[in-house]
Structure prediction request, 245 residues.
Amino acid sequence: MAPSKTITILMMDAPYEQARTSTAFRLLHAALELGFSVRVFAYEGAVSLPVTQQKPHANALHGRSLEEEEHPNPHTWVSALLARAHERGLAFDWVNCGLCVDERGATEVVPGVRRGSPADFWKMTAESVNTLVIPTR
Amino acid sequence: MTSYLLIESRDPFESHGLAQRCELASALVAEGAQVTLFLVENGVLAAREAAQVREIEELGRLGVTVLADDFALRERGITPAQLAREVKPSLIDALVEELGRGAKAIWN
Prediction:
């Protein structure tokens, strides 16, 4: 089987801030479903997306329990994307900018996420058919 | 032919993003490029016929393909029947496919 094409996406927004995060996750999922391998470079606040300390919560205002609220956490989305790539035999490489991690203390992340530098982003870009930068405002 | 993918995520009534995308698209088309505008998030508010967004009409006249993310449309209660004739609802897959074909992509 020919190696799949790879798309690189750079994300910058911290979790729970912008619709761009949901859109980016949808893009990543669509890319995997279409047979693309994916590389993600998480920069600035986006390094917090795979942090495992995120916890779901109930919604007292609406009277919903934890289970009823079914509150998604970004780290579970990252894990789900990694698992889906594995199921499909595709590469999924998520690199967190190391300096951004240190600044935010975002060190405990889901398995499969690694630490890197902007040099990794350059390498990802060079090895991909295309790169999409999703900037923050 | 060089292809460009312009992604607009901002509400056209609170930013000049769409007007700037339109200006850029016009220049690219004049250079012989193929241009697709993909509306996502609040960018899809420009897709409504009732909004009468002049830039959307202009893009249609230029031959720019204008797509609106169906998920973002549904989130905002915008039905296909409410779209301007220049706009087609689209799965986000179309955006990925354009990237896969090597279109130069700019997100706003």
